[in-house]
Structure formats: C-alpha cells, structure tokens
Amino acid sequence: MTIISVFGSSAPQPGSADYELARQMGQLLAAAGFAVQTGGYGGVMAAASRGAAEAGGEAIGVTCAQIEAFRPMPPNEWVTREIKHETLRERLAYLVEHNDGIIVMPGGVGTLTELSLSWSLVQVGEISPRPIVAVGGLWARTINAFLSPEYVPEQYAALVQLAKTPKDALSILTRQKP
Predict the structure, then answer these.
(1) CATH class of the region 3-173
(2) N or C: which end of the chain has fewer CB within 10 A?
(3) Vertex 73, ends 69 and 74: CA angle to 5°?
(4) Tens digits of per-residue pLDDT, 52-87?
(5) How many CB atoms lie within 10 A of CB 36?
(6) 8 A C-beta contact, residue 34 and residue 4
(7) Spatial distance between the Cα atoms of 139 and 164, rounded to a whole number of angstroms
(8) Domain chopping of the chain, boundaries
(9) b/e map of 92-118 (b: 16 or more CB within 10 Å)?
(10) How far apart are CA 3 and CA 32, in angstroms?
(11) Would the pLDDT of 1 be above 90?
(12) How far apart are CA 62 and CA 38, in angstroms?
C-alpha cells in the first residue's frame, strides 16, 4: 500500500474553500490507489479523510494522547484506521517518516513545521527521497519568499514541488512514482 501523508490546518470547516480543496485531494488520492494518512482530527485532516473514504479508499488517522488531554476529541468520523501515539513529537515523526509521499495543504504553524521537517529530513538523507508537494497560493508565496540561493541551493529547493490544484499535485505524485 502506498501511503501519502496529507498535512494541513485543523481550522477549515465543511463547505469552506480549503476544506473542499482537501476533500478533493483525498478523493483524487484514493481514486488513484493511494492510502491517505493525516493527523486524524478536524479541518483539512477530516476533509482529506472524508474524500478518501468517499472514494472507497483508506483514511489513516495518526492521533495523539497528548493532544487529546489538552483538547479532548476523538479521531474524525472518516478515519478507517487509527494509529495512536503518546506525544505530539512521536506523532509528528510518524507522519513525516512513514509515508511514500507528502501533500501539504493550507495551514498554519503546525503545517509549516510538518513541511519544514519533511523537507529537512529528505535534504540531509535522514529519510528516503519522496515527493513533497505544497498545494495552493499560500505555500507558493511562503516558499518563494523564503528561497534564496545563498541559503537554499537549487537542488534542495527542488525537493519541494509547488502545485496550484489537487489535480496538479496528483500529477506530480504520479510522475515521481512514490
């Protein structure tokens, strides 16, 4: 089974543009035969899980006792398999390391952490090379503002691909054959 971790904010609500974008991403991934793995809770995580479930795919939710102690909540209703860790750090490491590719949807500090950690670990060879695809204008603006050849050489900048839409992201994933 080829697993794609989908990162994104917990804030988007059903019907919002970012929720529907993530739902479409989950549907496209599942329809292409990928298992969708998220942090297991709300927002983008629920949307991608929902899209995967609606397309008949697997939605893996990687949850955390530490988060649930802080903010009691079960995994979203679309999760078909839960993998629970004790700490946020263990959950983050699992989501970043145990996948065949990464999709980064709109998000905040937590999503930026997931993107940065994934990118850095691939760059230094801590984890094997895999597609890392950032979807949407937020990431295009953020990454382009960050990139500077004196600090991020071209070969490392190329480790993250930018996609405008979920369809573009899926095309990049399938071209790179995770």
Answers:
(1) alpha beta
(2) N
(3) 115
(4) 999 999 999 999 999 999 888 899 999 999 999 999
(5) 32
(6) yes
(7) 9
(8) 3-173
(9) bbbbbeebbbbbbbbbeeebeebbebb
(10) 11
(11) no
(12) 6
